[in-house]
Amino acid sequence: MEYIQALSEQLKVFLLGIGLGFLLGAAYDFFKILRICIGFRGVTVVCDLIYSLLVTAATFCFVLAFSGGEIRFYIFLAEILGWLIWFLAFSSFTGSAAKKIKSFFALIFRPFSIAKDKTKFIFRKIKEIIKKERKKSVNN
């Protein structure tokens, strides 16, 4: 059993850690797009919780698989570096992509939204008519 990893093995783990950080950065932007598209505060809490659990599980499995369960500082440093590479290279496109995705879905679901509004209007009118009829019957 080896207690010290060879330098080549450490470099391999470091580069794989950068890749994992890169993927975690992409996952962060996925949740960011989801939050922007849904636009409801409760989604932010759920997305942050899921992302935190994802990062924890991914890091745990990575350390277990590639470092034999030994916690090494350079693994965390590599993940942060990979995340920063993703953030600096691709994250600036996330906001505009989210707006385009949101407008696309708004365009697709617009007929449903119009139908929902008209249905609400009809039911509101029916409710008003029923209230008037009840008042008439109670007063008579």
Kindly describe this structure.
The protein has 140 residues and is mainly α. It has helices at 7-38, 41-66, 73-90, 92-139. Helices cover 89% and strands 0% of the residues. α1 runs antiparallel to α2 (41-66), α1 (7-38) crosses α3 (73-90) and α1 (7-38) packs parallel to α4. The protein has four helices and no strands. It has two domains: 1-90, no CATH class; 99-140. The model has no long low-confidence stretch (mean pLDDT 87). The radius of gyration is 26 Å and the shape is elongated.
Low-confidence stretches: none
Number of strands: 0
pLDDT averaged residue by residue: 87
Indicate the structural class: mainly alpha
Strand content: under 5%
Oligomer: single chain
Please, how many helices? 4
Basic shape = elongated
- Return Rg in Å: 26 Å
Portion in helices: over 70%
Largest sheet: none
Distance between the termini: 95 Å
